[in-house]
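Practice problem 4.
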């Protein structure tokens, strides 16, 4: 894609001194944060903590030993429980894993940026991720964002890596996406996003289309191998097929029910007696009926949920709130929230410039259907339909960083142009 104002062109990532320094910066900032801020599970972190403890101590995935659940996807809990089983019930190994995942995200994002846009974009996208305050704060949070982001980016890296055969690429990417789906089921359709995007972006004719269709099928089979054992577990639990988690209908209801603001809502107590799978079915049917009742209102809610997704970023502080207060004092919580909000706004401005740069140089089709852009649109569309929260935009933080890096390069090109104009001799 020729949308690089000052880049040498797409190529495989080179580990230059600049990239090593950026990686060291990412590691240093996260180590400093983890050393300073204690892990005190909060909000969803309390659930992940409870699930991991119950799984290790009693062999049950659920809040209590005698009440197994399928409401939450199990992938993140499997990671935490494995560390609890190996090292005991302590948080330091989880922090170490989260830092490793963070560095992995920086590495894979840089690989993708180099492959699609070039080395300069790779280094700058790594820098954006390294210094992104919310991501710096995430190692002390028990959450699904880091493993999901790493796995989905790694799958795209494997899908497009040039040195492996087509079959190997598709199968490896599918296996990784299977694990990503166990973390968040939104990964289930990513083979279509990646394969479809590459076919449309390259416009290579029937051969490219057939190649990507074959890759989608192979990746889907590999994903099925990973997901099938958990689906069987759920079938034994309910006597019906629940692919990964039973919260799909409930998240649809949260975003589409009378009185919703698009965010999380507590489910009605009148359905608390129902098994989780039946509760999800009932609430899902209610949500669908509510959508069909007034499609215009549904469209208005979709816009509101779009704004919820993109107009704020304070989850890194909020979910670290007890630890932040213990480490720095209560006054620092709003200050850090202002910092994360300001940096998110700055990154978004860079993304706008980066998109403009890509559209101008690569054209509409190559920009829109790049797997980088298309995956952002995919995750955005999901949360315009179901429940929305600010943290869900972290699912595409790597892709966002690449677009922000394009924006930085464009700003640098503009600055060089302005400087050249300012120093040009005036005509006599």
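Answer key:
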């Amino acid at each position: 894609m020729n949308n690089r104002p000052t880049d040498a062109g797409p190529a495989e990532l080179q580990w230059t001194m600049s990239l090593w320094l950026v990686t060291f910066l990412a590691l240093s900032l996260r180590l400093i944060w983890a050393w300073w801020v204690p892990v005190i599970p909060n909000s969803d972190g309390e659930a992940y903590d409870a699930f991991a403890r119950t799984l290790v101590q009693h062999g049950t995935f659920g809040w209590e030993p005698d009440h197994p659940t399928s409401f939450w996807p199990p992938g993140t809990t499997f990671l935490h429980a494995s560390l609890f089983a190996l090292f005991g019930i302590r948080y330091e190994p989880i922090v170490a894993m989260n830092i490793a995942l963070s560095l992995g995200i920086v590495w894979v994002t840089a690989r993708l940026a180099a492959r699609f846009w070039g080395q300069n974009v790779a280094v700058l996208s790594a820098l954006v991720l390294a210094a992104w305050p919310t991501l710096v704060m995430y190692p002390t949070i028990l959450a699904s964002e880091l493993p999901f982001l790493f796995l989905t980016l790694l799958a795209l890296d494997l899908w497009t890596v040039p040195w492996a055969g087509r079959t190997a690429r598709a199968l490896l990417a599918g296996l990784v996406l299977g694990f990503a789906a166990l973390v968040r089921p939104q990964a289930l359709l990513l083979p279509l996003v990646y394969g479809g995007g590459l076919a449309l972006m390259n416009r290579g004719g029937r051969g490219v289309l057939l190649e990507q269709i074959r890759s989608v099928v192979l990746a889907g089979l590999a994903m099925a191998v990973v997901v099938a054992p958990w689906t069987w577990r759920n079938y034994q639990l309910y006597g019906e097929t629940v692919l990964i988690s039973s919260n799909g209908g409930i998240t649809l209801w949260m975003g589409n029910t009378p009185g919703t603001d698009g965010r999380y809502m507590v489910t009605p107590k009148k359905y608390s007696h129902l098994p989780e799978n039946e509760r999800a079915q009932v609430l899902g049917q209610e949500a669908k009926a509510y959508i069909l009742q007034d499609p215009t209102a549904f469209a208005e809610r979709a816009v509101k949920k779009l704004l919820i997704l993109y107009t704020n970023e304070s989850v890194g502080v909020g979910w670290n709130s007890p630890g932040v207060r213990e480490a720095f004092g209560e006054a620092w919580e709003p200050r850090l929230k202002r910092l994360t909000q300001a940096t998110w706004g700055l990154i978004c401005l860079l993304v706008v410039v980066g998109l403009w740069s890509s559209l101008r140089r690569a054209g509409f089709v190559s920009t829109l259907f790049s797997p980088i852009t298309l995956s952002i649109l995919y995750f955005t569309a999901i949360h315009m339909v179901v429940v929305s929260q600010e943290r869900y935009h972290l699912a595409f933080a790597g892709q966002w960083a690449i677009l922000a890096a394009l924006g930085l390069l464009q700003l640098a090109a503009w600055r060089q142009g302005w400087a050249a104009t300012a120093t040009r001799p005036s005509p006599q």
